[in-house]
Structure formats: structure tokens, C-alpha cells
Amino acid sequence: MQLEESSRMVQTTSTLEARTIPDSTLGQIHADNPRMKARNVDVFYADKHAIDNISLDIGSGQVISFIGPSGCGKSTFLRCLNRMNDTIDSCRVSGEIMIDDQNIYDSSIDVVLLRARVGMVFQKPNPFPKSIFDNVAYGPRIHGLATSKVELDHIVETSLQRAGLWEEVKDRLDQPGTGLSGGQQQRLCIARAIAVSPEVILMDEPCSALDPIATAKIEELISELREQYTIVIVTHSMQQAARVSDRTAYFHLGKLIEVGDTKQVFTNPLHALTQDYITGRFG
Amino acid sequence: MSLFNLVLSVLVIGATFFVFGQRAAAGQQATGTIKLHSRSHYHGMWAAITSTLPALLILLVIVLGKNLLFQHWASHFFPPEVAGGDAVDRAIALAKITNVVDGIKFGEVEPWVQSAGEAWTRWESDTIIVANVLVLGVSLTGGLLGYRRISFKFRARNHVERILTWMLIGSSTVAIFTTIGIVLSILFESIRFFKLIPPQDFLFGLEWNPQFEGAERAGSGGGTATYGMIPMFVGTFLISFIALAVAVPVGLFSAIYLAEYATLRVRGIVKPLLEILAGVPTVVYGFFAALTVAPVVKSVGESVGLEVASESALAAGLVMGVMIIPFISSLSDDVINAVPQALRDAAFGLGSTKSEAVRQVVLPAALPGIVAAVILAVSRAVGETMIVVMAAGLAANLSFNPLDAVTTVTSQIVTILVGDQEFESAKTLSAFALALMLIVTTLALNYYALQIVKKYREQYE
């Protein structure tokens, strides 16, 4: 963002809402072609109200980024989308999160199948202590996606190619995945996630443990993957959100303050809190 | 001064030097703008160490070495026929002298023994004086020398750290040297045994009958003593195998339940309860096996038409298995908990069920620790004595049938060495040979298991 532009915006803050948390989310929570729809989601950790009444569409074939200060609930909301919060005992979720008009918190939903459709990449690269091949083949094996060794080889190869790692590792597929560099490990984790052909990939600060060059590679990869997958990315880097995402959602103290097209959010935020955050005055 | 008082005095001197050393250093700090290299308590520790450590080392040498020296001096009193005699004669002569020193009298004492004993008593009292003077002197001199080196430039911290490192190294080698000592003592006795009994008879012999030892000598006929170790090793492995067949699955599954499935509340109750099992004395397990389990095994076996000995390998093995469950469950639980949560998250994020995550991610990552737990359990099972003495019987049957009475290496060692022994007999010495083979076997098992772990381990950071 240019300096002049932002300084001009500061002068026009009179048109923005005051710095109080709004009752409802500003901007456009609906997407034209939603892949997932969250409605009135609340999350509690024991007594702590971590997510307060959030409604949001995740558009099909889009990249949406969640930004906001630490502890604002963006990672918690992300983990609701494939029910990873189930692994935390004290966590309770209410509201609806729909995929194909089915509530994923409905008792008829099989969480195993849900997580195969909504994959996840974590903040710290976490390859299994197995060979590179076995890391990628793990998902297809447990879901029975390949009927033969040839088919499995094919899935592993295409997944590694899509993750941009094939050329670097094709000669050492039998070596441990933990022996790769940090950036390669994270791309291995992305390859592992796309090997089960998910519809949505959730990424929880995927570059925060990586150096700038590895980060650039992952961002490039996200731009390529957007054609086939719906991607939700949590990031602390405003530049990253601006570079890779189509839509941006700003979270603050468990509330979704505003959501809209990335360009609009960064150039013409609707709420003063959003503006404070993206101009670096807060958070 | 008695030994206790002497040590106490040295420690008091050390404490005094600590106080003075610290004050001296702190005083230098206070007088001007100079800055001490090390903080004042390091200077105090330095003075305390120089006053105690050398003095205590000298005391240790005196206490350990004085008897060797006295024995050497006492040998000058031996009459020619003893001095020229063999090791046994000299040992007897020394024992006579020490009896005089201790005031024990057996009949008429030879004059040379009497004079040697009096000399020995004199040496003892002289040594006490010398030790007192030497130790206290070294303590004070060492403390003063250390104290004089204290100055703001003196790198007391580095010196103290280095001395501490050496003390830690010393402590860690104590266990190693003890092990070496144990192995050597067993080895020498075993060599004496193998001089009497050919090694191949011992290693490959199928019959174990040491109780006939001495029968020929006494001329009472009966039988010949045989020393074949195979029946006991078969018994040991049979019982250990039964024990592990019980303990490994039960222990591992309960560890998986505790680490992965149980709620915190259940875990808080079940884990301590399981560990109580480890605190039950083995002799209690022994009579539980002999009085409760063995009759049950016998009656169940006979009700289905099997012939069961009243003391069976199965009963001993089952109870031993229960005894080692907590070793496996507790250690495995710890290593499973140590597997990073990130790996579980990764597995769940790909749509694994809980059991898939456990089987394919958590257990492979925890494998080295689990194998270590099993190795420890094997060592416990092989070395366990009380349960088998009480429940498995003493008959050295060469049998692979778990319903027979068998015996183990450890219980045979116990029966051989309990009571009065004749240390020149093959029967007594055979206990050491058995112990040696037991150590060699467990070492080989451990080594082999570690190789397996190395091959299959999945390393995480």
C-alpha cells in the first residue's frame, strides 16, 4: 500500500465507524458461490468466550485470509471449520457450519470424512517421522484412495508436483521427511494434505516458522493451488494477506469486525479498528 | 579423634573458609571501584573446596590403604615355614594376627603371632595420630593457600565449575567401576569353576545334579554330580516368555489407554493404582503365585484333562507377568505422552481415526522408548528370583511344557548359596558360572534389542 494513500485515508476517518466493536460484521459476509457457510458460531473454552457470534461464507475456489491481533480467535475459528477443536476437551462450539448444506457439527456427520474434505496445514511444519513417500501416502492409505501400488505412486507424485516439491525430492523419497529443510517440510505437509483431494485447505499461519525465501515459495504455491482448492489462511503478515487472498476477514477480541474483498479492506476499510490494525497502529 | 569427628572437623574448617573467603572477596569489592571477576560466594566455595577436598582424599587413601600396608609389614614376622608356604598358609597366619588385634583368643597363641599382633595394634594407634595431624594440616594449609589466591582478578567461578565437573564425572564412574568389579569377581570364580568342570559340559550339558557333589569323596555312593546349565536356562526363558506374553500386551494397551483415551480424572486414579503393583514386594507375589494361582492353574488344567504339576512354570510366569505390567505401562505411558501433539494433530487433520493415529503415528514414534521398557521388563523377568523359588519348583527338568515344574538360573543360585558353603567345591563355584552366563545372556539380549530399535526407529525432533 502506498504511503500517500494511507495518509489520505487517515484524514478521512470521520467517515469511518467509531473505535467501538460493532454489533454486527461490516462488509460482505456472503460469497457468490459458497463452499462453506458459518452461521452464528460461538466457541467457548471452559468459561472463556473465544468466538462471539460469527457468520461468514467461504467462497468456492477463492483464497480468504483471516487477520487480526493475537488471541482474536482467528485460529480458533479456522479450527472449527474441520472440527479440529474436538481434540480440546474444554472446547464447546455452537451455531452452524454448513458444507454442501450439511451442518458439520451434526451428529450424522463423520468427522473422519469431514477432515478428508477439509484438510489442514499447521503453523509449524509437522511431517511424520516417516519417509517422504509414506508422509504423502499416509492419507490415501487410511482412506483407501488407491487400489494399487501404481495408483498410490501416481497420487504421491502428483501431490508432490502440485506442492512444488517433486523436483527436489524425487530421488530420495525413501528418506525421512524430518530431514528436509523447514520450507521443504511445510511444502511436504501441503502435499500430504492435497494427497487426499480435499475441497478446502485450512492453513494456520503456514509461513510463520519459515524464512522469507521459503515463505515466497509457499505463497507462490497458494496462488497456484487456488485454481483447484478453496483455501482459508490465517496470517499475521498483512503483506501476505494482501498478496495471496481474494477476500480478507478482520477479527478482533473474538468478533468478526469486517470482511470484504482484500483490495477494499486494505485500501478502504469500513471500520476504524480494521484501519488501525492494517496501518500498524494497533496489534 | 574418631573418623566421624575428623570428617566433621574438616567440614567445619571448610565452612569457616567459605565464610572468610566470601567476606574477603566481598571486602575487596567494597573498598574501591574494582569489580570482582567472580561473585563473592564463588570465592568462598573455592576456599572451602581447597580446604576440604584434598584433606578428605588423603583420609580416604589412609582408610582404604592402611590394612594393605599393615599386612605387608606383618608378613615380616612370619616364621620361615609360613613365609615360604602357599597363599592359604599366609591367609591363616594373617587371620591369627588380626584375631590377636581384635582380642579374640583361640587356645595358645604362638609368640610370633603375639608380637605381630602387638605391633599391629601399635601401628593402628600411630596411624590414627598421623591421620589426624596430616588431614587437619592439609585441610588448614589447603584452605589458607586457596584463601590467599582470592583477589578481584582471580577467576574463582571457572575453577569452582571445573572442580564440580570433575566431581560429577567421578560420581558417574562409580556405577561403571562397580559393574566392572562385579563382573570381574564373578569371572574369577567362574574360571576356578571351569578348571574343575570342563566348559563344554557346563554349557551344553542337559543334566543338572550338583547335589551329588562330594558323594564320591564321602564314599556314600549315590550318583555323580553333573553340571549342565541347559535345563535352568530353558526354565528361565520359559517363565520369562510366559511373563512377557502377559505383561507386554496388557502393559502396552493400558499405557495406550492412559495416554490417549483416558480422561484426566480416570488417568489420575488408574495410573497410581497401576504403580502400586510395582511396590508390592516380590515375596508377596511369590506366595500369591504358590498358594493362590498355582492351585487354580492345577485344578483348571486337570478339569480339562491335563496333567499339571502343583508348582508349574505357568503359575510363576503369570504372576511374574502381572508383576512387570507396571514397568511396561508406566514407561510406555511416559514415552507415548512425549510424542509431540503436532504429530497427532497432523494425523487427525488428515482424517485419521483415533486408533489409526495411535497405530500409525504415535506408536512408531514412541517405539524406541517402548522397546526400552520391554528390555527393562525382560531383565526383571530373567533376574526375578523370589517368585520362581516359591512357585516354580526346584526340579531341574529339561521341559518346554509350561505345566511342568521347572527351575530357573536365579533360583538355583539361591539354593546353592543358601546355608554353609565349602568354597573349594564345584557345587558352590557353579553358582558363579551360572551368574556369569546370566549376565552374558541379558547383555546379549539388550544389545540385540538396541540394534532392532536402531533399525526401525522413527526419529522426531
Q: What's the short story on this structure?
A:
The complex is a heterodimer of chains A (283) and B (461). Chain A is α/β, with parallel strands linked by helices and 283 residues long.
List the helices and strands and how they pair.
The complex is a heterodimer of chains A (283) and B (461).
Chain A lengths: L2 H9 L14 E2 L6 E12 L2 E12 L3 E5 L6 H7 L10 E9 L2 E2 L7 H7 E4 L10 H12 L5 H14 L3 H4 L12 H13 L5 E5 L7 H14 L4 E5 L3 H7 L2 E6 L2 E7 H6 L4 H7 L5
Parallel strand pairs in A: 1-11, 4-9, 4-10, 7-8, 8-9
Antiparallel strand pairs in A: 2-3, 2-5, 5-6, 10-11
Helix pairs in contact in A: 4-5, 4-7, 5-7, 7-8
Chain B lengths: L2 H29 L8 H35 L5 H4 L3 H16 L8 H39 L6 H41 L2 H6 L10 H4 L11 H32 L2 H16 L2 H22 L9 H26 L2 H9 L4 H30 L2 H6 L17 H9 L8 H31 L5
Helix pairs in contact in B: 1-2, 1-5, 2-5, 2-6, 4-5, 6-17, 9-12, 9-14, 10-12, 11-12, 12-14, 13-14, 14-17, 16-17
Q: Tell me the major beta sheet of chain A.
A: 7 strands, mixed
CATH level 4 superfamily of chain A: P-loop containing nucleotide triphosphate hydrolases
**How many strand elements of chain A?**
11
Could you give the order of the helices and strands of chain A? HEEEEHEEHEHHHHEHEHEEHH
Kindly estimate the percentage of residues of chain B that lie in beta strands according to DSSP: under 5%
The CATH class of the largest domain in chain B is Mainly Alpha
Average of per-residue pLDDT values of chain A: 88
Mean pLDDT across the residues of chain B is: 86
What's the architecture of chain A in CATH terms? 3-Layer(aba) Sandwich
Q: In CATH terms, what is the fold-level topology of chain A?
A: Rossmann fold
User: What is the level-2 CATH architecture name of the largest domain in chain B?
Assistant: Orthogonal Bundle
> How many strands of chain B?
0
Q: What Rg of chain A, in angstroms, do the CA atoms define?
A: 19 Å
